[in-house]
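2024-03-11 09:14:02 DEBUG pipeline.ingest accepted 1 chain
2024-03-11 09:14:02 DEBUG pipeline.ingest length=65
2024-03-11 09:14:03 DEBUG pipeline.predict start
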Amino acid sequence: MIIVPIKEGENIERSLKKLKRKFEKTGVVRELRARKQFTKPSVVARGKKLKAIYVQGLRQAEMDK
């Protein structure tokens, strides 16, 4: 459960913004979207590998400068 303490006289908009930020940090929406459909483990592994290759290329380009 997400709890957002509200100070006396605090703006409702600001407290809603805090709630949304906390909710986003927990990753609930991202997890729900991921669980909507099954992704094969091989596809997940391929995606991780491609991301690692991309990040390594960025780091290598940064070091070459």
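2024-03-11 09:14:41 DEBUG pipeline.report Residues 4 and 64 are 46 Å apart (CA to CA).
2024-03-11 09:14:41 DEBUG pipeline.predict end
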